[in-house]
Amino acid sequence: MIDATPFPVRAASCIPAVSARQMAEVDRLAVDQFGIRVAQMMELAGSHLAEVVRVELGGDLTGRRIVVTAGPGKNGGGGLVAARHLANRGASVLTVLAAPVNRLDETARHQVATLLEMSIPCRVASYDVTGDEFERELADADAVVDAVLGYGAAGPPRAGVQWLVERIARTAVRVISLDLPSGIDGDGEAAGVAVTAVATLTLALPKRGLFSDRGRRGAGHVLLADVGLPAALYRLIGLDVRTPFALGPIVRLEVAG
């Protein structure tokens, strides 16, 4: 991890943090009322995540080995977009899915199809990569992208999700998480094992869980990414969000104390 990033810094107290329920309503309004497609938000999320990984690795992805872990939902889809951008920027990428392709979110399945056309390997946790093989891949990696669980996760992880989270939680390799470290929910609860990241890129608005005791221990430094949601949307649910991205599409949140 590097101590300073090129990302502008904003005080976390200046940007409202939201609960999992509030964020679900934000996502619903984005699609249903403002016509912003999930695929649009996912593309921005993944591109920004790849940029954070590049910075965490010192600015050059050429030849760097990245393991991207992806859950079955939209958070996983963002990780798969990041895999494409990381490969395009020179990294050697392995993607490991928490579930078989036919059990992924539709938008995530689309991303897998693109990665396969690019000859980027996509393996399914515990199906075509054993625990020992996965741990060797982690040990040889320069970084791990944790896009297994997002703000909507609740309760202990299951099946392939748990398989991934447990192993990522044990790795000594630097981990960059998307939205929240997997295993910590949007309100800061950790029902079981949780990932500890060096950096977490959260999307649109910070989640309250990042600032809980467990979240602060697990998230590393917290960055916030613009996924194109307008202030008018936030006003519909009573939030006053004042241009957090005026200085750039990724900002680092500084937490007092």
Tell me what the structure shows.
This protein has 257 residues and is of the alpha/beta class. It is built from 8 helices and 9 strands. The chain has helices at residues 20-32, 38-56, 74-88, 106-117, 131-140, 159-170, 213-218, 231-236; strands at residues 9-11, 65-70, 92-97, 122-124, 143-147, 175-178, 199-203, 221-225, 250-254. It has a 9-stranded mixed β-sheet, sandwiched between helices. Helix 2 (38-56) crosses helix 3. The longest helix is centred in the N-terminal third of the chain and has 19 residues, at 38-56. It is globular and about 50 Å long.
Main pleated-sheet profile? 9 strands, mixed
CATH topology: Rossmann fold
Poorly predicted ranges (pLDDT <50, ≥5 residues)? none
On the 0-100 scale, what is the average pLDDT?
A: 93
Strand order of the largest sheet: 1-9-8-7-6-5-2-3-4
As for the number of domains, it is 1
Task: Write a brief caption for the model.
This protein is 36% helix and 16% strand. It is of the alpha/beta class and 257 residues long. A 9-stranded mixed beta sheet has the order 1-9-8-7-6-5-2-3-4, sandwiched between helices.
List the helices and strands and how they pair.
Elements: E1 9-11, H1 20-32, H2 38-56, E2 65-70, H3 74-88, E3 92-97, H4 106-117, E4 122-124, H5 131-140, E5 143-147, H6 159-170, E6 175-178, E7 199-203, H7 213-218, E8 221-225, H8 231-236, E9 250-254
Parallel strand pairs: 1-9, 2-3, 2-5, 3-4, 5-6, 6-7, 7-8
Antiparallel strand pairs: 8-9
Helix pairs in contact: 2-3, 3-4
